[in-house]
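Pasting as-is:
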Amino acid sequence: MSLIVQKFGGSSVADADGIRRVARRIVETRNRGHDVVVVVSAMGDTTDELLDLANEVTRRPPARELDMLLTAGERISMALLAMAVSGMGAPAQSFTGSQAGMVTDGAHGAARLVEVNPQRVRESLDEGNIAIIAGFQGVHRQTKDITTLGRGGSDTTAVALAAALQADVCEIYSDVDGVFTADPRIAPRARKLEQVSSEEMLELAANGAKILHLRCVEYARRFGVKLHVRSSFTQNEGTWVIPSPEDAATSPKEIPLEQPLISGIAHDRTQVKVTVVGVPDKPGIAARIFRLLAEAKVNVDMIVQNVSTGDDPRTDLSFTVDECQGELAVSLLRAAEEKIGYAGLDYDDEVGKLSLVGAGMKSNPGVTFTFFEALAAANINIDMISTSEVRISVITAADRLDEAVRVVHTAFGLDAEQEATVYAGTGR
């Protein structure tokens, strides 16, 4: 007998029919002789709808109360799913994140796990139950306040439980058949990957691919959790996220001698670009700017500084941050205008990030040329560029982002003969 952790996203449990379909899959897994732990997200777009409702009530909902509100979505899903499973003759018990032992720090809206102690989950399994846990949430030990793990936090919940319970595999179910070379909603001829390395999956997740949460991939890599990304709407084999070569013993499949040149294309609409104009070009100024942001916990992604000229050398410094932190970054810089000595600030929220990811890129010099030639042929301008050994990222205009995804996808021969199927979900 093996232990399987299954995580189902909101599109999989969007309505009563979806909940019953998921329940049947869970019961089938148990009937094959496995112990089953299930992590579930809120139904459909419930989280977005609750956020919209909170913003209608007040422009600045208190973070503690917002967490209390948002966790209601997962609690509804877990209870309904437990009812459906029980109705099919299999014993099931549901647990909130705190009941499942998910202990976090006190950062409301973006809490991080500090301890996972699933004692009640283990006891429930030993009693012959299927354990169903509300994802995305935990509890702060000192204050006893309910916290949320941020967007995609249910993935992290599932992987954390899989690690703590020493599960054989963690299955992440969604509304597509696995990890694709691009978002099939944007690039309909995107190809499904049979496997992808955890290094490449980290880059894809970090740069906007929504299929897996970044923290989930980091957690799985750190603790050697096998991930199988698949659809809850079919029985098709999904995508295995394989570990790094030094952890090859934990891989469900052999790691190929040569990784594919390009694994996929990710895009991100949630970034804004801030440009500090006329910055004195002398040592210590950049450190002063980014110290301000770091002390306020503003996460900076891409950075570009122009070359300065003239007797009084000045330069422009541009960087990108998440849109939820853009206004904070600008207000911090405005408050420090005299101290930094810049000439002006420019804020652009109509930008998007496109990232090309592949482990084979570093040994193939033609990749960069093909990437930029494809964008140039489509007359798509580039504002910023950032690279690593397995990634090239650019910032471009938001209204050209979808087209950019498609032309680059085609340029690298990633188009499949048939269009990919998106079984449900709005992509919101």
